[in-house]
From TrEMBL:
Monomer. PANTHER family: COPROPORPHYRINIGEN III OXIDASE, OXYGEN-INDEPENDENT COPROPORPHYRINOGEN III OXIDASE. It comes from the Bacteria. CDD domains: Radical_SAM. This is Coproporphyrinogen-III oxidase. Keywords: 4Fe-4S, Cytoplasm, Iron, Iron-sulfur, Metal-binding, Oxidoreductase, Porphyrin biosynthesis, S-adenosyl-L-methionine. The gene is hemN.
């Protein structure tokens, strides 16, 4: 398959009708299903299993730097806001210890083809600290060369100079994503993130001059003080800046969960109707400007690797969103980071104290996780394919698993009929195909295949845990 996908179609009536809370499926099972009885021992077993099977799947690394200088009020990330940079030095000591342990475990098991630094703010680290950390990673893992590896870092343009952008390239990064959210000064003030447009443009120009292979910009719709007029101006500037990829996130206002969001005045929030208009306008403008809607918040230029991978049916979904690489073992280091190794997910301790304590005890700082059963693995593939390709070949699933799709998923296919009636998808003997209208509601469609939804949990009820699907 190598055909362009049909454009996305915005249907306000259907979107309003189906608006509900739901997971983003960066993993399946989702992280709220991880269990406390999964720890270091189970992780070691998973790695031993890979060794026994002589797995040659490529390796990916994720490194989490949790610190930020100031807090953005919309933020729902796991971060530590402090101006005391000595905390980063202590953290780096422990992080290196964890990298040493993971490096020994995965020794000889393949090359790192993907690296992602996320946060927090990775560039909270000084240039010297980052150079040191990258050298440490290279000492512990075998990296594919620059032409074959995807090495990306999230950059807060407020924290880097032109020289720093060049330095990060020299340290091995070849992709950057820039947090922008909105260029409008009133919106920036309302979310406590003052970031002049010129500063962001200077970083992008520097990145182009330094030879980064891809520049991505993060935007958010639904922020306080956003209006159609302000968002139009922001999009003008973004389109003019011409990043290779754009992530357009829906602001999830969950002040009962995320404390900083309590500093956002309710009166400044756009109404749900305005939010939908904002989304429709953003999609229209970005598609008119030549960007392809990849799915779930992501747009890319047609020649960008993400769009190419989607056309060729080899797009993957992971904790960073979409990825062009074949499924790989994901080794994650740092507080709260989530690894995906073999048929397991495992998450590190979420507080610095607990993270440090486990490393002091000489064990990997894993706090919870899950060992997937066959049903989990099957549903993970179904959800992943729908998220990435907007279609699913039933026979391809039957080739990989000993099931008859129509029998195994009889209840799910019955539930899909309501989506079919709304024109969001079609089901025939061979394919489930999501229509242009259904693409924006892909989370709702995938939720049908999520075995855990609706299962009683001793945690907060579903509407409180997840963001709105659109
Ligand atoms: S949005 Fe980014 S920079 Fe702002 S507080 Fe959250 S993690 Fe830190």
């Amino acid at each position: 398959m190598n055909t362009p996908f049909p454009p996305v179609e915005f249907d306000a009536a259907i979107i309003s009708k189906l608006s509900q809370s739901g997971p983003r499926y960066t993993s399946y099972p989702t992280a709220d299903r991880f269990q406390g009885d999964f720890g270091y021992g189970q992780f070691l077993e998973a790695v031993a299993g890979l060794r026994m099977r002589r797995s040659r799947r490529p390796l990916s690394l994720y490194v989490h730097i949790p610190f930020c200088d100031t807090v953005c009020y919309y933020c729902g990330c796991n971060k530590i806001v402090t101006k005391d940079h000595s905390k980063a030095a202590v953290y780096l000591g422990y992080l290196k210890q964890e990298i040493d342990m993971q490096g020994r475990l995965f020794d000889g098991m393949g090359q790192i083809e993907q690296l992602h630094f996320g946060g927090g703010t990775p560039t909270y680290l000084s240039d010297k600290q980052m150079g040191d950390l990258m050298a440490h990673l290279h000492a512990n893992f075998d990296f594919a060369d620059d032409a074959h590896g995807e090495y990306s870092i999230e950059i807060d343009p407020r924290t880097v100079s032109v020289e720093r952008v060049h330095s990060l390239r020299a340290q091995g990064f070849n992709r950057i994503s820039l947090g922008v959210q909105d260029f409008d000064p009133d919106v920036q003030k309302a979310v406590n993130r003052i970031q002049p447009e010129a500063e962001t443009r200077a970083v992008m120009d520097a990145a182009r001059a330094a030879g980064y292979r891809s520049i991505s910009i993060d935007l958010i719709y639904g922020l306080p003080k956003q209006t159609m007029a302000s968002m139009t101006q922001t999009l003008d500037k973004v389109i003019d800046a011409s990043p290779d990829r754009i992530a357009l996130y829906n602001y999830a206002h969950l002040p009962h969960i995320f404390k900083p969001q309590r500093r956002i005045a309710d009166a400044d929030m756009p109404t749900p109707a305005v939010k939908l208009e904002l989304l429709a306008m953003c999609i229209q403008r970005l598609c008119d400007a030549g960007y392809i809607y990849i799915g779930m918040d992501h747009f890319a230029k047609p020649e960008d690797e993400l769009a190419v991978a989607q056309r060729q049916g080899r797009l993957q979904r992971n904790f960073q969103g979409y990825s062009t690489r074949a499924e790989s073992e994901l080794i994650s280091c740092g507080v709260s980071a989530i690894s995906a190794v073999g048929a397991t997910y495992s998450q590190n301790e979420k507080t610095l104290d607990a993270y440090y304590a486990k490393l002091d005890d000489g064990v990997l700082p894993i706090t919870r996780g899950i060992k997937m059963d066959n049903d989990d693995l099957l549903r993970r593939i179904v959800i992943g394919k729908l998220m990435c390709n907007f279609e699913l070949s039933l026979s391809s699933i039957e080739q990989g698993f000993p099931i008859k799709f129509r029998q195994y998923f009889a209840a799910e296919l019955e539930k899909l009929k309501a989506f079919e009636d709304d024109g969001l998808l079609t089901v025939d003997d061979e394919w489930i195909s999501v229509t242009p209208k259904g693409r924006l509601l892909i989370r709702n469609i995938c939720m049908v295949f999520d075995r855990y939804l609706g299962v009683a949990q001793d945690i907060a009820p579903q509407p409180l845990r997840y963001s709105k699907t659109i």
